[in-house]
Amino acid sequence: MDSKVVEAILGLNQGEEAALATIVATKGSTPRKAGAQVLFYRDGRTAGTIGGGCGESEVRQHAFQALRTQKPVLVHVNLTHDIAEEDGMVCGGIMDVFIEPLQGE
Known about the structure:
With 105 residues, the protein is of the alpha+beta class. It has three helices and five strands.
């Protein structure tokens, strides 16, 4: 786990909400591998990264949905050639990302 992400989680203020996204599996060429994490704060800030670009943007949308519903979700992010090429990405893999809502105590 990235120390910046750990610090960010521990630094959540009482009642502050964020969603932790963790890559749990990858296949093929992905910007980051299993274990990479990013914390999405409700106000749009982040700590850490799972690779940036369109893949992280897609995960961000799901993270905000998880914050609204307060339910964890597993997201399948497809960065394969056909999909990636349309968005100008150079990756070519697939990653599964687990997103869990958190709240500071």
